[in-house]
Amino acid sequence: MIEFVLENRTGLVIGAAILWCVYAFNLVVHRLYFHPLAKFPGPKIAAATQWYETYFDIVKKGGGQFTFEVKRMHKKYGPIVRINPHELHIDDPAYYEVVYPTNKPVDKLEFFSHQFNMPDTVAPTCPAALHRSRRQALAPMFSRKRIIEHGSSIQHIVDQLSYHLDNEHVGTGVPTNISHMWAASVTDVIINIVFGEPSHYLDAPAFSDPFPLAVRNISQLTHTLNHFGFLMRKVPLTWLKPFLPDLRCFLGFRDTLEAKISLLMREDRKQDFENSAVRTLFHEMMDSKLSPQDLRLQRVVDEAMLMIGAGIESSKQALTVACFYVLTDPEIEARLRAELEAGIPDPEQMPHFQELESLEYLEAVMNEALRLSMGAVQRLPRIRRDTHLTYGAWTIPANTPVSQDNYSNNLNDVVFPEPDRFLPSRWLGNPKVPATKPLVKDGILPAEERPLGHYMTSFSKGTRMCLGTTSVPCLNLAKADLLVSLAMLFRKHKMRLHESSSEEDVKMAYDMFVPQPKKDSKGVFVIFEK
Ligand code: HEM
Predict the structure, then answer these.
(1) Residues 6+ away with beta carbon under 8 Å from 351
(2) Where is the chain membrane-spanning (predicted)?
(3) N or C: which end of the chain has fewer CB within 10 A?
(4) In 10 A of CB 263, how many CB atoms?
(5) Annotated binding residues for heme
(6) Ligand 1 pocket: which of 150, 466, 481, 484 to mutate (most atoms <8 Å of CB)?
(7) Which atom of ligand 1 is nearest to the CA of 306?
(8) pLDDT digits (tens, 9 = 90+) for 31-79
(9) Whether 223 contacts 308, CB under 8 Å
(10) pLDDT tens-place string over residues 89-116
(11) How far is CA 236 from the centre of its chain?
């Protein structure tokens, strides 16, 4: 046999190459002419091969460019486009509630399940039923009652931030990196709420503890994990440590967490755990209806890691965007400060965040920051197994991944005129979007008149929307943290933007699941004044 192979190797190689070409030719012909999506508009090359997406995700400009390419496709082909062999993308905010329904089972796409290398956690779980049980186990952590109870601990952490500013930054003339500052502050808030204990990232000199900062840099791996997941799954992440210093710090945090959780889960500690005064993520998981398989140590640790990763980058970015734009526009800054001074007469007595909700301009600033920071910016595909969908004249077969994205929604120029501008005033007076015309060229008519907030999709919507939010407007962890943080900063501190910072430090240049600015951005810098 070996002799036969050696003697005929040239012929065998040519034969294998011919077979591969025939297979590839058949595959492409099937995708272009016989696939259930063959009739949908879009570039033929994207319909023929997934490598088209890979090129924009990983190669072009160093990667993270596919979201921009999808937008370009829509400009050319209209609001519904086949963006790869298997998936449709829709650029029409009026259709968002159909793709992301609140009361229908939706699956996620296997392709994205290794995106964070934690495929068994709630966010990347594909089947709707399994996702539901995993989400239900975590949901009590984020109930309205629980977040209100946490109000004082959020305030306490934000007060510590203010203390550090007063004692280490104000009047020094040294620029403070507020991207780092917010990363440290939101990490302390999230860890406090999820694990019920302080973490002290705010105490690091110049807010530069590597862990909160590593979360952002880890997202650089996201596209490689998607496109080459089949390879990456074979390589333990620990092997990549020497090449990715941030990974070392991330995995170090994971090891500490694992040690802590395995201690909590020990049989001889059961009594202490159950009697503990503080309820943590682990209490919720242990008391839930999760299967023993879902309560195994590795999965519990991964779920905790996901919770931290999910909250840090998006909250940090929203706060950084808010500060940058407020400080670039004296009118916006003056109006915000005036409202805070009237609403909070004594800055040493900051109100509970529920009271901050009545400050209309503060909330408008937060909403505008959430809109422009966009949360997760990569498209979020959903799959309906139970039924086909109808978009205008198009029938979308059941089992088809369909996606929309926040880049298109939050920057839609019918819903948000002058979409690139930071205009908090667009949120004042409970504005509505009428259902009299489509929101994109050749789009469908909205089902009915909706409040403007309906179209801001930074937290996504439906059964798989952000867990850091609830259906009650504003009463949720993510928004509570943003309101308390912004109120403290602009009520208690004076500051100006450092000349090294520009809009390029907050504007999306790369889609790394979360939006990232130009590669050499060091963050937004501010000088705190007396
Ligand atoms: C400004 C702040 C935030 C924004 C804009 C945001 C945005 C989002 C978005 C768009 C998703 C959907 C992702 C997907 O479909 O794959 C999501 C999911 C999620 N978020 Fe957030 N998030 C924020 C803060 C937080 C916080 C503070 C936490 C908790 C500590 C959190 C926990 C989660 C979890 C657990 C999921 C997965 C939910 C599920 O799959 O059912 N997020 N978030």
Answers:
(1) 343, 344
(2) 12-34
(3) N
(4) 11
(5) 466
(6) 466
(7) 35
(8) 999 999 999 999 999 999 999 999 999 999 999 999 999 999 999 999 9
(9) no
(10) 999 999 999 999 999 999 999 999 888 8
(11) 25
